[in-house]
């Protein structure tokens, strides 16, 4: 009677698992078959979109086990023992070798690039491979890692694109504005004289108006007090806002942007101040406290961020801080694809006493930009977006701000992405703050202190 | 709003072979013109400097022949080795120098120059001295192909100031200050000698050389590894010696296109704004230079613009240059400009295009943008990310995370380019793909992720030099004299 041993079946099941995962990545798997010294097959990389194959090959050493417990088994890892001859064979060849271990009991597989693992002489001495049950799992998600191993083996090889679906944010916030604009002749020729006359009548009167060629254009109804005192209210005209917002005339667009700029200046009150020189809006320091934390909804949860804080030590008096740092943003109203947006650029404002600008502000801004990465800036943008979207909504005590409001813009989707962790592991200094994901959030404050 | 990703455009190297990366392309296939007639086989390098720098540079040229190892890193595609030069290697030609191609400034002369009081006077004196040395080399019976100017550190310290060294990529029009830009002045002074020059810092041949902190900070001169330095310098020298290292990989079915970049520069007295133009031909990747008219303030946006007549003249001349080179008119014209085309400019450019019956014209207003994308991770968006707002407006990432390098080779968050097409002959995505490809045509940098397309980058460089060239003086037509 002919027989096929149990171990052959286990081996076959292991190979079938590997083949399935490799195919799910969109790559080809060729089992060696027949006589082999330790390599069970090859993975050929292939661009899943174009179908192109570029002769980038990886050798696979497959192992499978039905055992209940593996060597050195813990919650997070297990070990795989290797012979000295195996290690020598794997590491001396030209093509990279992957060890893929299939644990049939759990229906899971794990992988390791052997040349990289055994590049450390200590590990050669230990004669074992330690698998991490999470980061080494061999599923279709391991594709980026596999590509990187193949591409690193041959510098200059570009490997197929890593398809990682990603959501990206734009630094844009949608803008809604009042429906009506009011226009009337006035005897004032400039914003300055009109403004002065207006404040004489009412110190609290809003700034959502502009003077152009002896006429005033405004979000406020000019037929009411105090406006009717300063213009010929009987000659007043009402316009739909879209006669300005949708106009292609450059002068009208410029005027409309100026009106919006005046409106946002009122909108952000009283929490934010505007710096005259740089034009940024920043959180003002509270009178009674040195620091200010702001609570908001980030992408996942509610969190707080320190938005005003004191930093450094004065040389003359080490008990005093040398400066205050205020979270800030630069803004610009832009019309893109016939819609209006507020473009928000996160930045910082520096003061030497919580109020007056700090002479070293430029230097300090440069320094912080050296350690802030995409995640850090994105985190700050999300805070500002939340501020703009929730601020001025109105509540029981206060009416909603009438002339502008802001809303979230949907994230954009892309089917090509960046494997952050993998790339980070290849940086010459992965400990650099530049690659710190934690910088994305509030912890930036702890680092600076 | 729609987001998509453009693949890294391939470049063409020797034997018509393609590669997305410059350095690996040169390593594997050699330069584009390898095997063609008239390609440089033996590039003779002149050197001007102090006894120390001349010797250092001569030694460095020798070392280049055997190459430099890759920087120790796990990013082999970002920092590859420089395998050396020779008939079988990289540029497939020799780079040589010899005593009779070298000019050493005596220590007394250097001391005299450093002692000249006043930044402007000192800069003028250094330019004059060096230009005289180069003139002496140009009169030799066997002339060098390219002259390397290796300034001693004492002179660098006095001639470079923070603004010059930072490079003018950020501002559209350079302000005319009291300080003179040494580089631009020297290039303009040497233009009549018809010898391209290449400036070198002592760090090139001696990595341990300490550049004073003040200069280093302002100049973006983070110390590069020797292999990267060799790649960048030898590529620039190869191009200046008349070689063509690579070109855009093109489909034969594509229209014969002339790419024109427009930039502006303020005259030395600060009173006028002039146009400078760099023109690229598709199949040769060669840059030709034109000087455009003086700009006037436009009624539309109160900013400097060309008059309709000057715009017409400029494009008409540019088309004529194309015809002279090819024997026929281009089928398509692409204009890149860093400010809006106003009514008069559009009229003038359209008139020149219509006169030659050119059916396809794309006038693209290109600006660095503050509108950005944020990824949900530490690395910024990928280079090649494209957000379309409209049929004629899009945001393109030319700097950002690069899949081939497996990192973001930059600091902070990159600024993308806002593209606005004011005349559209091709689909917007095609315009963006072309723009991305043109960022790889910078012969000064072999790391391919440049921020600006060469049309605009070259036009800016040209302006920095033309500023010092008098109105009546003839200008050199090749980009080699400006880069």
* Rg of chain A (C-alpha, Å): 32 Å
* Unreliable residue stretches of chain A: 439-449
**Helix share of residues of chain A?**
25-40%
The description of the largest β-sheet of chain A is:
8 strands, antiparallel
- The strand line-up of the biggest sheet of chain B is 1-18-19-20-16-15-10-11-12
In total, how many beta strands of chain A?
Answer: 21
The helix-and-strand class of chain A reads alpha+beta
Q: Number of helical segments of chain A?
A: 12
- Determine the strand fraction of chain B and express it as a percent band: 15-25%
Q: What about the largest sheet of chain B?
A: 9 strands, mixed
Radius of gyration of chain B: 22 Å
The N- and C-terminal alpha carbons of chain A lie at a distance of 78 Å
The SS-based structural class of chain B is alpha/beta
Explain briefly what this protein structure is.
By secondary structure, chain A is of the alpha+beta class. In chain A, 27% of the residues lie in helices and 29% in strands.
